[in-house]
Amino acid sequence: MGGPVFWVIFIYSFMGVHGVEVGDSSHIQKKLQSPSEEQQPYRTAYHFQPPKNWMNDPNGPMYYKGIYHLFYQYNPYAAVWGNISWGHSVSYDLINWILLEYAINPTDPYDINGCWSGSATILPGEKPVILYTGDDFKKHQVQNLAVPKNLSDPLLIEWVKSDHNPLMTPVGDIDPNFFRDPTTAWQGPDRIWRVVVGSQIDGHGMALLYRSKDFINWTRSQDPLHFSLKTGMWECPDFYPLDIKGENGLNSSVQGRATKHVLKASFNDHDYYIIGDYEPQTDSFEPQTDFMDSSFQLRYDYGNFYASKTFYDSSKKRRILWGWILEADSKTDDINKKWSGLQSMPRRILLDKNGKQLIQWPIKEIEKQRAERVNYQNKELKGGSVFEIEGVMAAQADVEVSFDLPNFEEAEFMESQFVDPQLLCSQKNASTRGVIGPFGLLVLASKDLTERTAIFFKIFKGHDKYVALLCSDQSRSSFREEINKTTFGAFIEIDPHRENISLRTLIDHSIVESFGDEGRACITARVYPELAIGEEAHLYAFNYGSQSVTITSLSAWSMKAAQIAPIQKRRRPPVT
Ligand SMILES: *[C@@H]1O[C@H](CO)[C@@H](O)[C@H](O)[C@H]1NC(C)=O
Ligand SMILES: *[C@@H]1O[C@H](CO)[C@@H](O)[C@H](O)[C@H]1NC(C)=O
Ligand SMILES: *[C@@H]1O[C@H](CO)[C@@H](O)[C@H](O)[C@H]1NC(C)=O
Ligand SMILES: *[C@@H]1O[C@H](CO)[C@@H](O)[C@H](O)[C@H]1NC(C)=O
Ligand SMILES: *[C@@H]1O[C@H](CO)[C@@H](O)[C@H](O)[C@H]1NC(C)=O
Ligand SMILES: *[C@@H]1O[C@H](CO)[C@@H](O)[C@H](O)[C@H]1NC(C)=O
Ligand SMILES: CC(=O)N[C@H]1CO[C@H](CO)[C@@H](O)[C@@H]1O
């Protein structure tokens, strides 16, 4: 017994499919319908969130023996940050989740003030391990190791901390307040493990490099993997290879000519990345363009998205990104609604063909949640027009649309290449008439359009190039005063012969995740409408430019809710 077949059936029954052993069935019943009950209009249906309390960074995501694991920074006691433990959930498809007991709790001198972010590494012989930051009894940040208690338990429910903890401590020039968030480790051709830890030394953001033969005894490298004189503290660094030519993802230990490496760091409330060449012999990393070096900063997401982490999914040979999506309401609202924080839709990451940036796309599995569909083709949107897309649940939908563009000659001129796209989006908002654009979608909109979130494009002509501006305008997303309604924006370079541009938007009650131009620019927003909730939410396409644009095709689907259910402590074998 205990073989994989047994466990597949066993866990299947836990998923509630056989209707047995699922902890809180009233919760599931609710999730199967829609979460838009009166008191909880903002809970999401197909994004990951625990039933209650505070959640922040995704931690240690991994695929192990047929099961996806997601850990996350979690406060077991309240909807505010504090008492941080590692929440743990498992899934077969990255959409439906079983909530397990906490994997790591603050119980030891080296993590008593919190078990903070970290990553999983799968060691040879299929042995997963976790490196995480502990806030110790002196409130110093240190790096610790935890391993599964029983490798035969397919859910890896129990984790034990190493007797050798802490493994890395803030000695020498390292400030004990700025030493955290170890990455997934990788092995060089010399079989030595490397890991980087986020830091700030003399005010400069830094990825400190450590090496180890045995994963226990770690030695700091004299040189960091990378640092920047133009940023402060780097939180949650991530470092991984991507294939230059193919679409397959790579595990973190792949190096060589056919790869580019991505270094991501979280600072200034955003996740910035750079792409370059990594040389494992010398552990040098040479980026094509460095952080803050040009006016065009690469970010995973130009909206609300932070402290992300990727992992390599060996079953589908892809690299997947998760990010923490913060609330944009007040702390009081969080306490009243009893929860705070979402995880983004997991996104597959690819290198763009030009090698200069990443492309992100919601994982294929989400398409299984699609239900009723409406479809339009070759619909002309004359300047100043709005039309309603009816027949889908507008508060819980997936929309894919492609627009045929008019001739660019008429495009508005943009003075400077140093314009901040976010600023441009708030000045040239969805209500401001333009030439080519604004055109796009109005989501979570009230029938009379007094409340709406607008996701739109606008085409500009620069001195030597054309750009599409992608905006997510939250300025009229809610009548509620206390909500942060900052508008977000991103530029996408387009060539003058470009005929069309696409937008995909995932709408889930209080989150709007948009992927512009096949995933070249992503913007996530949190919105909390007062009128446009549940059945009262509407979906529109619009064009406030003077030039007509044509919707080549638009498909919208209602989305089924995911099952996110707790597991009971007492376990019983399945009835087969
Ligand atoms: C380890 O897990 C397997 C599968 O759940 C179980 O059969 C076995 O008894 C466990 N071993 C221990 C020492 O708990
Ligand atoms: C730890 O590794 C370093 C470098 O490899 C070595 O010099 C040192 O002796 C090791 N310490 C222990 C306790 O194994
Ligand atoms: C990573 O991928 C390479 C190339 O496919 C393979 O040789 C290596 O065994 C993999 N390593 C791990 C830890 O999976
Ligand atoms: C939209 O832009 C116009 C013109 O710049 C401005 O007058 C208006 O206040 C803006 N609306 C919002 C809600 O920011
Ligand atoms: C609102 O959100 C933006 C973007 O996330 C942030 O820069 C700004 O500081 C926030 N404003 C307030 C008042 O919190
Ligand atoms: C977009 O335009 C390209 C040519 O520029 C064409 O190959 C493609 O089929 C078009 N896509 C759609 C959805 O119309
Ligand atoms: C239940 C529990 O342990 N709560 C603790 C959370 O953290 C605060 C201070 O950080 C403690 O005062 C609580 O006792």
From TrEMBL:
GO molecular function annotations of the record: hydrolase activity, acting on glycosyl bonds
Pfam families: Glyco_hydro_32C, Glyco_hydro_32N
Domain Glycosyl hydrolase family 32 C-terminal: 366-558
Highest taxon of source: Eukaryota
Keywords from the UniProt entry: Glycosidase, Hydrolase, Signal, Zymogen
SMART domains in alphabetical order: Glyco_32
Keyword Ribonucleoprotein (UniProt): no
Domain Glycosyl hydrolase family 32 N-terminal: 47-362
Annotated PANTHER family: BETA-FRUCTOFURANOSIDASE, INSOLUBLE ISOENZYME CWINV1-RELATED
Family indicated by similarity: Belongs to the glycosyl hydrolase 32 family.
Annotated signal peptide: 1-19
Alphabetical list of InterPro entries matching this protein: ConA-like_dom_sf, Fructan_Metab_Enzymes, Glyco_hydro_32, Glyco_hydro_32_AS, Glyco_hydro_32_C, Glyco_hydro_32_N, Glyco_hydro_beta-prop_sf
Record keyword Signal present: yes
Name assigned to this protein: Uncharacterized protein
